[in-house]
Predict the 3D structure of the following.
Amino acid sequence: MPKPARRIFSTADRHVELIARALAHIDAQLDGPLDAATLADRAAMSRFHFHRVFLAHVGCSVGAYVSWRRLLRACALLASGREPVLEIALVVGYDSAQALAKAMRRELGTTPTALRRGDAAAWTNLMQPWRLPAIASSSSSTSNAGAPPMQASRFTTLPAGITALTATARGMVQHNMTRAAQQAFGELLAALDAADLRNQVASWMCMVPDAPKGPDDPHCRYVAGVVFGYEMASGTGECQQPDVALLGSLVWQPLAPGRYAVFSHIGPYEALHRSWSAIYRDWLPGSGEQLRDVPPLELVMNNPHTTPPELLHTEIWLPLA
């Protein structure tokens, strides 16, 4: 008897399969820990890349999706039964009735009591799978209609021994790291000016190494950095570590050596998420490339203080195996 044909999965199929595995785990474990790191492990994907792959394929962040599923389940239980609110809150992953009520007020403009009275039916909008008007902010939209497909401008190898002087700030507001970026670069610039080193910087870079746990994650890190002596864009020069006082969050941080795919984003920083999503959703599945378990980088190519937003140039460095 012939054996059944073995299904051959494309890279795109594999990505969808892994995300589907994470979605199934979310539905099965609403009362447990469902942060991006846990889900990345369940999906057998890199923690540094999972949240961006998820956003690219699902259309919202991990935190937004988990909140949607928890609130949808909570509203259904509240509308159909008479279990205590605390019991329902625990079943869907909130640690108290007050926590559930707070989430419902914030995201839906209603409360468990009002919903049970039948005074608020707006929660039924949650039944539409991708309608997350309150949970997923418009800034997280992956829409890039009319844009040409994202293509790598080049592949490059970052040598070992490249070290950046970095400053770190924390805090995401509605999926936006603008405030943290200003704080981190502000601290870095103050240190460079105090040591009269600004003119010696060869490369300006940044990275967001954490998976956001929600639209207002206060712990998500933004790391701003500069490299002396080595120009990352051209791969020329020799890395240096000039004398600078390591105050505040300043540290010398080694950059992960190895192979990278490099992409160009032209436009305001607020639209960078669209390029990231296009890379993970469109380019990566068709490329045949595998990701390396290190954080990706962004290289700042022109001065944001003297360049119009529509002409800002950012290189996105995606680490490859």
The chain has nine helices and nine strands. Residues 154-320 form a domain with the Multidrug-efflux Transporter 1 Regulator Bmrr; Chain A fold (CATH 3.20.80.10).
